[in-house]
Amino acid sequence: MSDGARLLPTAAEIPAQGVLLHVGVHKTGTTALQAALADARPELSALSVTYPGKKQAHHTAALAVVGRTWGWKDNGGDVTPISRYEKLVGQVKASGGRTIVSSEFFCEADAATAARVVSDLGGDRVKVVVTLRNLGKLLPSSWQQYLKYGVSMPYDTWLTRIFETTEPGKVTPSFWQRNDHGAVIKRWSDAVGAENVTVMVLEGVDHEANFVGFAQMLGVPPEILVSRMNLTSNRSMTAAEAEFLRQLNAKVRKEMTWDDYLKYVRNGFARVMVEEREPAADEPRLHTPDWALEAAAERGNLAADSIAASGVTVLGDLAGLRARASSPPAYDGPIVIPTDIAVSAAMSMIRTAETPATPKERARGLASRLRRSTRRASSGKKA
After folding, report:
1. Which of 168, 35, 50, 46 is nearest to 110 (CA)?
2. What is the rounded distance in angstroms from the CA atom of residue 356 to the CA atom of residue 32?
3. Strands of the 19-22 sheet, one edge to the other
4. Contacts of 314 (CB under 8 A, 6+ apart)
5. Gap between the Cα atoms of 27 and 179, Å rounded
6. Residue 25, preceding bond cis, omega within 30 degrees?
7. Which among 190, 178, 176 has a CA at the least distance from the CA of 310?
8. Tens-place pLDDT, residues 168-205
């Protein structure tokens, strides 16, 4: 931990047998935190802290209990079996000492599901932590995250659609379920009690503040997590990178099953591009228009008012949620896609194609093709 780092106020330790449930929200450094927790499992275990399972995060359990389809409902997506959630519940009940569970998909739970999760994970043992950032700053990274699900809607059009209504719709219906931050806090404080909810506002603090705060709640030396805070690279895409992926999505969305998209595009090209490519310093970044930043600030003010009145513990400054975010300047010229992006796409897909499919992947691929063929036959189309 660096000297003079801007940190959050000290977080209170959870009880010795407590369960710390981290419910997100999305795009608040969750992936980096989960990577650190997963890598630190042996050290945490030696200090009587359990991070259940073997995977980086508890996404499948969260998706199962919230009833969320992973992938495209109309082409290969599946609802995760509830047994995945039940397995996590069993692991938490069997653990000794402190336990931490983390998945940003928990923030999408409705009130009844939130109450169920709290009850299943231990009732009075459960403490909920929510990590928040300024909504205006989340907009470009949120749209880019939806691009990785196959969305091909341009950024400005997407912004117009989400701010036209906060009700679920056909376009990224999960956005406001995740990002109506006041409502997220209310659902979880109703489920567990406001006195058992901590909100960490990750604005105006250094990158390591998040890791230090979680270490404090778990009662472990901060260095265990801080030393692992750069295990993943989840940078935002440049305007050209995002446009390449958007155009690719428009071409392949109807030609691929979700399993193939996941393998070749999301985990193949998009992940490799973000993790391995070094954009030029002058490559244009995504610009968020003023009207959207102002709309986000209005929503941030409402969320901050709601959280301030809720009685939950707030670490950090709620003013960070109220502020009008800034954005890189608009780029007036045409978006030119550098050759190395296309090369990265081709190389990542070649590598993926050369990797033999596992038996599980072959079975899922066959099932997806059969479902697709059945849908076409029932609609009178040739397979």
Report:
1. 168
2. 29
3. 49-50, 98-102, 19-22, 126-132, 197-201, 313-315
4. 198, 199, 201, 307, 308
5. 10
6. yes
7. 190
8. 566 788 999 999 999 999 999 999 999 999 999 999 99
